[in-house]
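Propose amino acids for all 349 sites.
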């Protein structure tokens, strides 16, 4: 039987018998565009991921009797401030959504305050915890380093998803680490690969040689002391796999942080800065379980990297507790799947 499902910012037609899916762009939130998209797909269910509220789309779909669910729902501090200005309009739109499965109790409180009926709101957890990643042994570590052109017998400091203003702090930490551990390597992964030239120029201006991931021939090793700038997309999890110590960016600038769940699931010791409101739940969980290190500034980052590289027991304990905390938080994907299947079976309510 073929099922049609609208999800997130794509429209997906799921052919259950063939295991196939068709992906097209989400329509502009204009009545004629929404109507054409719904005519084309004829969905039996709409799943909106992480609280994308499109008023015309929701209103027209509800008018056609299509059940709508918001799953993995999240409302950031910034989004909540913006949505509150639109509360009168949202109070007419949000009741058209059949179910809200929010990531945290705070997200549930916020969507209710914006006009969602309390009876339709539940806390389902964060599906990012179900990333499918777990700690691996020495062979996988060596293979991951070899794939990046790194020495397998030397520690690797990975700075993931960095933003402008943080790379200098990372290079300071790398310089401090090299003074204590001359063989350590640095893999710098800017959040936006198009910044590769800017980041490479910064490295070279600070006296570090630099190799772009896209220009490193397959099988060739990164020269000792050179910074590997990963200017690719889709490799971050594999790069984290190669790490001895991980710093996750957008946290030493006022940005709200990037995904700390992936390296934590792998059992990597994770360092992040004070700005983590985009991943508040995961950050609080890791800190409470003593599975991460939060630093206040660039000096704190350098001190944490050097300390962890020099203390095997502390580093391994941090990573083990991080992986255990992440494992205990899984299950949101299955809960949301059950919710969606229930909506299909119940005709939307």
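Proposal:
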């Amino acid at each position: 039987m073929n099922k049609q499902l609208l999800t997130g910012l794509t429209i997906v037609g799921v052919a259950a018998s063939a295991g196939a899916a068709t992906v097209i762009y989400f329509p502009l939130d204009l009545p004629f565009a929404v109507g054409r998209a719904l005519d084309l797909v004829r969905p039996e269910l709409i799943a909106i991921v992480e609280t994308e509220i499109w008023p015309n789309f929701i209103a027209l779909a509800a008018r056609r009797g299509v059940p709508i669910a918001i799953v993995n729902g999240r409302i950031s501090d910034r989004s909540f401030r913006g949505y509150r200005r639109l509360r009168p309009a949202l109070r007419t739109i949000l009741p058209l959504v059949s179910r809200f499965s929010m990531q945290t109790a705070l997200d549930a409180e916020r969507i209710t305050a914006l006009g969602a009926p309390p009876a339709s709101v539940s806390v389902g957890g964060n599906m990012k915890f179900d990333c499918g990643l777990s700690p691996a042994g020495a062979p996988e570590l060596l293979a991951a380093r070899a794939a990046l052109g790194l020495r397998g017998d030397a520690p690797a400091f990975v700075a993931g998803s960095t933003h402008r203003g943080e790379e200098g702090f990372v290079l300071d930490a790398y310089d401090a680490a090299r003074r204590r551990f001359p063989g350590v390597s640095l893999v710098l992964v800017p959040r936006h690969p198009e910044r590769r030239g800017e980041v490479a120029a910064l490295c070279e201006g600070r006296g570090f040689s630099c190799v772009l991931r896209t220009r490193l021939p397959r099988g060739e090793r990164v020269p000792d002391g050179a910074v590997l700038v990963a200017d690719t997309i889709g490799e971050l999890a594999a790069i984290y796999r190669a790490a001895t110590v991980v710093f996750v960016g957008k946290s030493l600038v006022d940005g709200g942080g990037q995904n700390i769940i992936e390296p934590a699931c792998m059992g990597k010791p994770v360092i992040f800065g004070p700005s983590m409101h985009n991943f508040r739940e995961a950050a609080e969980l890791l800190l409470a379980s003593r599975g991460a290190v939060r630093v206040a500034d660039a000096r704190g980052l350098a001190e944490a990297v050097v300390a962890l590289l020099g203390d095997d027991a502390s580093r391994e304990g941090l990573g083990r507790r991080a992986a255990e905390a992440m494992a205990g938080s899984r299950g949101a994907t299955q809960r949301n799947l059950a919710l969606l299947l229930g909506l299909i079976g119940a005709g939307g309510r």
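The CA atoms of residues 63 and 283 lie 40 Å apart. The first strand starts at residue 2 and ends at 7.
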